Amino acid sequence: AQKITQTQPGMFVQEKEAVTLDCTYDTSDQSYGLFWYKQPSSGEMIFLIYQGSYDEQNATEGRYSLNFQKARKSANLVISASQLGDSAMYFCAMRDSSISNQFYFGTGTSLTVIP
Amino acid sequence: DAGITQSPRHKVTETGTPVTLRCHQTENHRYMYWYRQDPGHGLRLIHYSYGVKDTDKGEVSDGYSVSRSKTEDFLLTLESATSSQTSVYFCAISDSAGYLHNEQFFGPGTRLTVL
Q: How far apart are CA A40 and CA A28, in angstroms?
């Protein structure tokens, strides 16, 4: 069963504007972690931000923030003041608390920042 | 940057030949993972390891085997490569499951083409 769903295959945003990338997840665990990764055209996977299921405040890292709505099981990434260098694929992931310690990834959203 | 290397970085092989990809880490992390990345599918887990000689199957394990004889090395073997295994392969590592905030660190990837 799909654990992470990213419904936006591609997004466009004007430079300096904010953009929200959607992510919903499915788990029956009470304890889990949510992550966002960036993959630029060069191919490397870059960790951006983390949100724990028990964290009461939304995570922020510089221009990145995570809009965590636990009841709706959503963990949207917000990028403020978009820059040309933000053009990349973005993946949402969830880490469960089982012994296997698996990470589950979504299919990704391709973001293009327009000058 | 986490010390993760993958070798080879690029490989072209023919259908039916065996192929082994190597992942090497210098972080002494317990968990190691092999993913494949294909357009429209995101990252899919092939196999993972939670310790030396402790491995388990992921979502797309058919046609792949793994071995981990040392903490630092995780090998992925395609016993008889097929064209459907043409993909980009990523190795990832993660520290203890006791801390959900521990993200996965990714290697640079291996681009495999099976003709």
A: 32
